[in-house]
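To the team - adenosine monophosphate complex, inputs and output below.
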Amino acid sequence: MEMPSITPRFTALGEPYCLPVPARPLPAPQLLHLNATLADELGLGPAVTGSPQFLEWMAGNQAWPGYAAHASVYAGHQFGQFVPQLGDGRALLIAELNDLQKQPREIQLKGAGPTPYSRFADGRAVLRSSIREYLGSEAMHGLGIPTTRALALVGSPQPVRRETVETAAVVCRTAPSFVRFGHFEFYYYRGEHARLAPLADWVIDTHFPEFSGREDRYIAWLSEIIGRTARLMAQWQSVGFCHGVMNTDNFSILGLTLDYGPFGFMDAFASGHICNHTDEGGRYAWERQPVIGHWNCVKLLQATLPLLAETPEAALALAQPIADQYPAIYQQAMTKRWADKLGLRDHRDGDTDLIDGYLNLLDRSHADFSRSFRNLANLRTDTDALADGIRDEIIDIAAFDAWAENYRTRLRAEQSVDSERAQRMNAVNPKYVLRNYLAQNAIAAAEAGDMSEIGNLFAVLAQPFDEQPHHAHYAAEPPADARHIEVSCSS
Ligand code: AMP
Ligand code: MG
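Output:
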């Protein structure tokens, strides 16, 4: 059996950044789903993934050959409050390798048992939340949004106590690095500033080699992360994705979507939509995500001030302009995404009003976010005959017709060709997103022993922009009794 060779990078940093922690064995593990495409990318062919050992690695029952599992420590701002110590409380790094493109990949198990950072929790994850992370991260990948990936989903009859007793599962997930903003905050707020440079240099040397060794490397690197985060927020907004727990410990140093807990793709559009039942104040509501992304970047810059200059004043003078880049980068990325979603080729005065007007219509009508944008591709510039499918979602028809007239005028002004525009729009307005009720159906079936819906959704969400006529029902709005499924931090 040929295995990709282990290449320790993060664990080469050693303590205190990470320490060896073995996974706790999981009884009677069952491979519920394998991401065969990702396995191939990692150089894990069918001979490996089909072997009995593979299941034992994915369950945490055997160590990956030639590697000892590790956990790392971090801190973070949770709902605005600083928590000095968090860490991999239930995640373990179980391998580091190069993928077939020779790019670094870390392999983690989530739910593999307690670590020194578990605080009073059990180190486990339940099947319900594991299915959500597994499908959610791959749905985001299918949409072309930077994210951690999911390699395998393992279930077990082991009971796990949450509000009720559920069963345990482990998600095996991969990323070039799982380092978070909170890793830097940990050392900064403890006053261990000498620990910042080795970690930052590791991130730069491993993941931003273009900045490696440069005198201004920290500034270049931080600017890059701030830019990636701003662009990521624009991507989230553009597909109606709500993260739910945008704490700095859930923000990736590579600008990846990370830690899928009470996330959600919006069905009915509401700009103030809160996807996480636990987030009573709506700190992480959809419309606040871009601002929170900025706030988190400021926290990262704060934690890395000692890297920038000798005195806090001098460091702040360098950090402030980096922080100030965020709004413009976000605005530019967002404007482009909204324009793409409307099928506009260039930017003109008044386009912002056009998109705001559309969002406003959707908001007032509680129209379905994904369907409303998808269907807009059917609108024609020469007649309003085909607009019906779109108008159906809107309560204020007169307001829609007035808006559509402006939209047609705008399209004609750039000589837009309907068929070409529809093609462009369908390539950015997904037909299929992981709606809560779809995830819930897969969870209910899985809890009753039927894993097939996990595979069905996985396949549909891999091609979210394709029509997939046999799967059109996966693009339906939630049935009335499934509109208000609540998801919380309990996982
Ligand atoms: P999360 O809200 O999932 O991002 O988790 C926040 C922190 O709590 C992280 O340090 C997690 O590792 C930790 N944590 C969450 N759930 C558990 C659990 N069941 N066992 C141990 N640690 C956990
Ligand atoms: Mg987390």
